[in-house]
Recover the amino acids of this structure.
């Protein structure tokens, strides 16, 4: 319902579940719930490794027809030999590896970006290198194996550069970023858990590099990285709150307001980034009977208290935006309207 309220008719949920969808049996348990309860199209990911533990690859051949792609969401695959095995199996079976890139050895207990705000306020920082170093490693492996490789939620200027160069050299790579990395930076941080996510908000130079990546086509799509947590989990400040924010119900209005109305990109490009490009990359069928209507003529104020999501933590709470979703239609049936 949160997705429908945001204008989404298809979503691809990540495998950070219990049980992890790392086998046909476990994935089928998720698919059974989807068939029973979902009001829109839901295409789940399977994990790259068993239990998302980074030790043993899943059976790609058995899962390939049931999962949209493979990811150890929230966990970077630390062992390069393990990622090589996964990419070889993915390439053999025509599957996409979608990686959360994070080198744990470079984290040093950090929880926000290792920048000026962290130093000024006594916080432990997460370096940009923890993201881009693993992207660099994986791009080399993707080049070796021919694997279709997708990089999740990039946040740094180095990541943009590496992916741009890899595309130019012929690597089968795509990538996404998220609305908060395009519209916010460490300059917007507050001592509040709704500004804490992984990867963290980076520097203004990183944000500008991401915008350039949108304009030149390096960044293929925008995903929400929707991560609902309870109010209690997000009420413990930057240091102790859980990582992650919700995004399904705010993605289009904040991007329309912050990118289209400001002239950064066109509305057509935003639709490409949010809809047609993800469908094309992840082989999702065109859906002529699915659509959403947005009112871009009148502003409204984001109120997280009205969200359908069970999580309400967003840095955009209270922001005046244009582009409210007023109706979502799935298979010719209205599944959301105001």
């Amino acid at each position: 319902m949160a997705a429908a309220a945001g204008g989404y008719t298809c979503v691809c949920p990540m495998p950070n579940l219990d049980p992890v969808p790392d086998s046909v049996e476990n994935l089928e348990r998720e698919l059974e719930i989807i068939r029973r309860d979902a009001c829109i199209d839901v295409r789940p990911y399977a994990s790259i490794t068993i239990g998302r533990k980074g030790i043993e690859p899943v059976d790609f051949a058995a899962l390939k027809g049931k999962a949209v792609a493979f990811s150890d969401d929230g966990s970077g695959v630390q062992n390069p030999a393990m990622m090589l095995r996964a990419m070889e199996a993915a390439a053999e079976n025509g599957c996409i590896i979608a990686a959360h890139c994070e080198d744990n050895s470079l984290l040093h207990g950090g929880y926000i970006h290792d920048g000026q705000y962290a130093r000024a306020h006594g916080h432990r920082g997460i370096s940009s290198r923890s993201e881009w170093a693993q992207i660099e490693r994986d791009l080399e492996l993707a080049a070796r194996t021919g694997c279709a490789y997708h990089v999740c939620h990039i946040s740094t200027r180095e990541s943009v550069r590496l992916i741009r160069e890899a595309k130019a050299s012929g690597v089968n790579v795509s990538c996404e970023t998220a609305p908060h990395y395009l519209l916010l930076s460490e300059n917007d941080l507050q001592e509040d858990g709704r500004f804490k996510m992984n990867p963290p908000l980076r520097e203004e130079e990183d944000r500008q590099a991401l915008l350039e990546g949108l304009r030149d086509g390096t960044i293929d799509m925008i995903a929400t990285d929707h991560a609902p947590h309870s109010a209690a989990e997000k009420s413990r400040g930057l240091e102790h709150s859980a990582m992650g924010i919700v995004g399904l119900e705010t993605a289009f209005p904040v991007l329309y307001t912050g990118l289209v109305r400001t002239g950064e990109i066109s509305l057509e490009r935003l639709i490409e980034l949010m809809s047609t490009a993800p469908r094309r990359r992840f082989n999702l069928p065109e859906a002529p009977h699915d659509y959403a209507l947005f009112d871009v003529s009148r502003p409204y104020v984001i109120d997280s208290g009205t969200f359908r999501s069970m999580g309400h933590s967003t840095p955009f709470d209270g922001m005046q935006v244009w582009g409210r979703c007023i109706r979502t239609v799935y298979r010719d049936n209205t599944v959301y309207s105001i």
The radius of gyration is 19 Å.
